[in-house]
Amino acid sequence: MTHPARLTRSAAYWTLVLASVLAIAGGLALSLPRIGTMEEMLLNGTATGVEVYVGQAWITLAAGLVGAGAVGLILALALAAAKAVVAPRAAEAQAPAMSAEDQSADDEPAAHVHTAPAVSEPAEVR
Hints:
Distance between the termini: 62 Å
Oligomer: single chain
Strand content: under 5%
Low-confidence stretches: none
């Protein structure tokens, strides 16, 4: 019987997880220093157009990267959950079928086996 491939051995799954983590890390690495620089320059009153307007553009790009990474991680978790639900059903569907002899033996009543109802004696109460 062939077994379905495990999700943990799938190169595409791990590529999705790794790319998502890298996108989040890259987005944070782009945005956090620029936010700090913008805040410092604005509070000092020495901010120029470069710190403010170009910094905003970089932060917007970084937010897109972080968002894409978060969506990728959510998809990876959803894929893992779906695989966990579908895998047991697929294993049941691949169970070996009964042969014709086994099915006919199951269909016939077992006449040679005598089953008597279980009789239990009442317990004595003293």
